[in-house]
């Protein structure tokens, strides 16, 4: 009798059966990540009640003020994953350097990069935030991975996923065989498969960009946005809607659910600061690109596929334009024309 639908634990186990020779290490790693996301969800949901809001009074490697929940989420993610012996090392938006697995724990064959609480500027105003993670294989024979071992192209990812702490807490996961979404049933503390085989509509009438940066955009982006704003009377001959949540996980989830395009493009303001973009390649752009491509969408810097990029540093930033495939291809075409 199927009382509760497919749990994420059952789903992950059934996926393992499709991987001949799998030892179960990967399955256990995914389950530990799920546990970390449940713990973070609990903290986020209790926010001010547990004194978890506000600033931690510290800065991360990005020079951004850390929220208490940024630090707390990072610590929870580490404590749920460091002991099990499936990871050779970890890397996080909230930590300058590679996190070595403490000597008292065994090491495994996977690497993980993660943003424990993306969009945390939204925390204090009670808007959705999320956790993003990406799993890579540790290069053979490496006992103590260094930054170099993490610098793998997005096409090397074994899995990617996010947790979205919104009106409901959801997890979305890909291991290279499509994208599946799960909703946390708070009564039993388990994620239930609610969005099997998520796919992004190839066309859309909705775009997401922080329009306050408009005067700094490159010409192809300005052209695309202007055409959307021109609506029916313009060259697109249809009206567009705009969204900007300032939380990438929420934007990507909206796009997975109903289509759309999300843009945090390169702009002249970032270029003058020597930044490669706003979003980080290893633990934001690459995992989200893997998920979006697995759901039939596209993900580019503007000029090239994000997952083909050869990373040069752990906290490298890149421009991101992702979502409905036909829109992303149009925008790539505008960049090629320029
Ligand atoms: P393992 O021996 O458990 O480390 O698994 C070896 C490989 O099989 C992994 O790197 C994945 O590519 C695949 N695999 C194993 N378990 C799963 C799973 N639960 N879901 C998807 N892929 C899996
Ligand atoms: P802005 C959150 O800090 C984040 O990294 C993404 O989640 C989000 O899309 C973007 O930055 C928001 O940036 O400039 O609009 O605050």
Terminal CA distance: 59 Å
User: How many extended strands?
Assistant: 17
In helices, the fraction of residues equals 25-40%
Which residue ranges are poorly predicted, with pLDDT under 50 across at least 5 consecutive positions? Answer: none
The best one-word shape is: globular
CATH class of the largest domain: Alpha Beta
CATH architecture label name of the largest domain: 2-Layer Sandwich
Major sheet summary line: 8 strands, mixed
How many domains? The number is 2
What's the CATH H-level homologous superfamily of the largest domain?
A: Fructose-1,6-Bisphosphatase, subunit A, domain 1
Strand proportion: 15-25%
Structural class by sheet pairing and helices: alpha+beta
CATH topology of the largest domain: Fructose-1,6-Bisphosphatase, Chain A, domain 1
User: Could you tell me the radius of gyration in angstroms?
Assistant: 20 Å
> Mean pLDDT, rounded to whole units?
96
Sequence of strands across the biggest β-sheet:
4-3-5-6-7-8-9-10
Number of helices: 9
Ligand names = adenosine monophosphate, 6-O-phosphono-alpha-D-fructofuranose
Q: What is the H/E order?
A: HHEEHEEEEHEEEEEHEHEHEHEEEH
